[in-house]
From TrEMBL, chain A:
Similarity field: Belongs to the PRP38 family.
Organism for this UniProt entry: Drechslerella dactyloides (Nematode-trapping fungus)
Pfam families in UniProt: PRP38
Protein name in UniProt: Pre-mRNA-splicing factor 38
InterPro entries: PRP38
UniProtKB/TrEMBL annotation, chain B:
Region (Disordered): 182-219
Domain of life of the source: Eukaryota
One of the record's GO molecular function terms: zinc ion binding
Record's compositionally biased regions (Basic and acidic residues): 198-208
Name used for this protein in its record: C2H2-type domain-containing protein
Length: 259, 244
């Protein structure tokens, strides 16, 4: 695909009169990956017309760093800014490298737990009192968590299954908090929990995700290597210490065998 | 435009001389200009087609004096929000009889470039996105496609901006506490002062009232109650205003 210009909105891409010859995802018009009802709500919304109009893959970042919650629809079935930007990404159809640039976040330092407690608890123990965990994405460290969630959602929608697993699984060591806005209010979630939902659930953020074979199926087809647990290196040198507390890691296949 | 110098100017010279006269050179020049412009546009259109690109028309810029033709710009994303509540609670003067139709200024949202008026914010925003408006403001209907470098640059810029903002927000607790103390001290002293003044005023008033009551023979036995009532109702006492 060698486009030199983008369109300011989705009008031309949707008004195809049965003859679509633009770029495709999963051999269909990318915009149709989102259901008709919510798509039309998005296109009618003020955010789409005012804020999402005329964005390209670079200026979209301006809006993405301003996000303060994820979610599909809120209040009286109004589309969130998050879901509007997902549709925008589908329309822009950015190159692979650009999406990878979105999800990588060099500012964020992974914190390895000192004990073999389940990851998230250990993380909260270390960072529990600091404003990094407490605030909803205003510190420098939190600049990209919503951008990352946005790109992860796009990857789940648009990329082939094996790539989705390969790209999204490493993000499961990101335990930062996310705000999820639903019809009935806000709820707290975490980046890793969100990724896990993307990989295992059928509907996330009020969008039916494209069908994707499970990890085991892909492993049987030799499209994926068995997953390497994120905690293996920690377990090996902390053997025998917190045996009783050793729990399962969220979404991970398995930790190393206990001694 | 050449101005005809009066229809009946040369009435004395002959029968048909009452007809309008035209500045032929000026119109010939105009025609030549138009032809040249159209030819160049045709050429550009052809060249764009040969290069496999979309032809982007040039737009007029500048006022009456110096007319130039410039390339249309590509659309850029909005930097700021559209200020839809700009004219809220303001009195605007609109020409009489401008109620029907969209042309011309009227109550609501007015687009100066297109001379159109809208009574609904969503309609107005839609108009700002429309081809008609883009053409009138010298924009094409395409957005520049971002490359990876542009994305990286933008991300770095946003990070830098965020860092600067955070630095500006950083604060020294001791300094802020001291400042707060100072403010509280000031407020306390001001309150004290106000109280003092009030007390003084109340004392003065009481003294005056006392003198009124005393001077008024009628109220002598009912005392304070009557005086209070009279004061609430806005006059000095229930007695006659005649000099006693």
């Amino acid at each position: 695909m060698s486009k030199t210009a983008d369109l300011p909105d989705a009008k031309a891409m949707l008004d195809t009169r049965g003859l679509y010859d633009g770029p495709t995802i999963h051999s269909m018009n990318p915009l149709l990956l989102m259901e008709k009802i919510i798509r039309e709500r998005i296109i009618d919304s003020l955010f789409w017309k005012e804020q999402a109009w005329g964005l390209n893959a670079a200026t979209l970042l301006d809006r993405a760093v301003e996000l303060s919650y994820i979610g599909g629809q809120y209040a009286n079935q109004r589309p969130t800014a998050f879901i509007c930007l997902v549709l925008k990404l589908l329309q822009l159809n950015p190159e692979r490298e650009i999406i990878l640039e979105y999800i990588q976040d060099e500012d964020f330092k992974y914190v390895y737990p000192l004990t073999a407690l389940p990851y998230r608890y250990a993380f909260i123990q270390i960072y529990g009192g600091s404003e990094e965990v407490k605030d909803g994405g205003s510190s420098a460290n939190g600049l990209h968590r919503y951008l990352r969630a946005l790109a992860a959602f796009y990857i789940r929608l648009a990329w082939p299954a094996a790539e989705v697993y390969k790209t999204l699984e490493p993000l499961m060591r990101d335990y930062r908090k996310l705000r999820l806005r639903t019809q009935s209010g806000y709820r707290l979630t975490y980046v890793d929990e969100f990724i896990d939902e993307l990989l295992t659930k059928e509907r996330v953020c009020d969008i039916a995700l494209p069908r994707m074979p499970t990890r085991t199926q892909l492993e049987d087809l030799d499209e994926l290597e068995p997953r390497e647990p994120l905690v293996s290196d920690v377990d090996s040198d902390e053997e025998g210490e917190g045996e009783g507390e050793e729990g399962e890691v969220e979404g991970a296949g398995s930790t190393d065998e206990q001694a | 435009m050449s101005k005809p110098s009066g229809v009946y100017d040369n009435a004395a010279t002959g029968d048909t001389s009452f007809r309008r006269t035209w500045n032929r050179e000026e119109y010939a020049q105009k025609a030549a200009e138009r032809q040249a412009r159209e030819a160049s546009e045709r050429k550009e259109r052809y060249e764009a087609k040969m290069a496999g690109k979309k032809y982007i028309p040039k737009v007029e810029v500048g006022g009456e004096g110096e007319k130039k033709f410039d390339d249309s710009k590509m659309i850029e994303a909005r930097r700021d929000r559209i200020r839809l509540d700009e004219n809220l609670n303001k009195v605007q003067i609109v020409p009489l009889g401008s109620t029907g139709g969209r042309r011309g200024k009227g109550p609501g949202y007015y687009c100066e470039a297109c001379d159109l008026n809208f009574t609904n914010s969503l309609e107005y925003v839609e108009h700002l996105n429309s081809k008609q408006h883009l053409l009138a403001t010298g924009q094409t209907d395409t957005v520049e496609r971002a490359t990876l470098d542009m994305v990286k640059e933008r991300l770095a810029w946003l990070k830098q901006k965020k860092r600067e903002q955070d630095q500006a927000e950083e604060f020294d607790l001791a300094k802020r506490l001291a400042e707060r103390h100072k403010i509280e001290e000031q407020e306390r002293s001001q309150r004290k002062e106000r109280k003092k003044v009030k007390k003084e005023e109340a004392r003065q008033k009481k003294m005056q009232e006392g003198s009124i009551v005393h001077s008024d023979g009628l109220q002598a036995d009912h005392g304070q109650d009557y005086a209070m009532m009279a004061r609430m109702m806005g006059f000095g006492g229930f007695g006659s205003t005649k000099a006693q």
